[in-house]
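note to self: the first set is below, dont mix up w the second
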Amino acid sequence: MNESAVKRKLGIPSWRNLSKDKVLKFAAAMPEMATEVRLKLIEQFPAFKDLGKTNIDAVTEAHKSTLAANENSQNHFYKASQDQRDALQADLGRDDLSWAQREALHDRLDQNVRRVGEKDSESKQFMGAGMKVVAAASAAALGLGVVFVGGKIAGASEDGSEESQ
């Protein structure tokens, strides 16, 4: 595949139009390119590595911000749940309650504890999904780096040089 075919495949008129979302398509198309075309294109795109790092940094910062917001939300929920448990326990300490009233308060305490457990599980699932996003973004950046380095090594091998950059 030559340079013009790559630009057509990416849907761009020139390399200046290579946007962040097209970088992955570009990387995926690299194995189909001749080594000399690959190297020529990478030379025209010196910020290739920097763009990948910038994307990873942006995903990491967004993930950190999301985790902080989640932690704040969790803390508010746990505080409200604890306040409710404290109030229910205080009510249970009253001497003037009937058995039915005590049973109702115990049921409410049980519901509160179950909601806290559900919220904890929900939070763990949320954090697991967030880690998958960060891992996927990191893997994509690593893949781009491997394609880049692989292209340089393959180019060096075809030229007969023993250097691996």
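second set (the one i keep forgetting abt)
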Amino acid sequence: MTPDDAELDLPQELRDGLIAVGEAARDLDQPWWIFGGAAMALYGLTDIHVPDIDVLCAPRDARALLAALGGQIVPDPGEGLFRSAVFGRAHDQSILIEVMAGLEVRDGGDWADVQFGSRRPVFIDDTPPVCPRYPGPHRPVPPFRPSQGFGARRTA
């Protein structure tokens, strides 16, 4: 049995939030992905606390998704390891949803674009939240480590 075949044992607030994202994202123009802790939970990882749902999509779609979720664009803190051209939060869901577009990760003194090249739908009821298809047999490896050679590329 693979994680694709198993019934996921997700906390109710995460399950409800993933369904809300999947339903709100049905009409987006470009591909979108759930990543971070929520994606790891979709891969069947159960021994983690998922405080929010991270979504990566195109800039126009990020605005539409936030509107559909009752969220709003907020200034990206741009601190630490990540920054986004568009960043917003939907607080009025069962779990905090953070939507990003133009996401970059710090790699030493440089920034690398975060890009996912594949998609893996995981159905919750009839709603398919989508997460990246990670390399290896169902390994939830974060795809934005530039040194690993997948998911991110350097920018000037």
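remember for set 2: The first strand starts at residue 33 and ends at 35.
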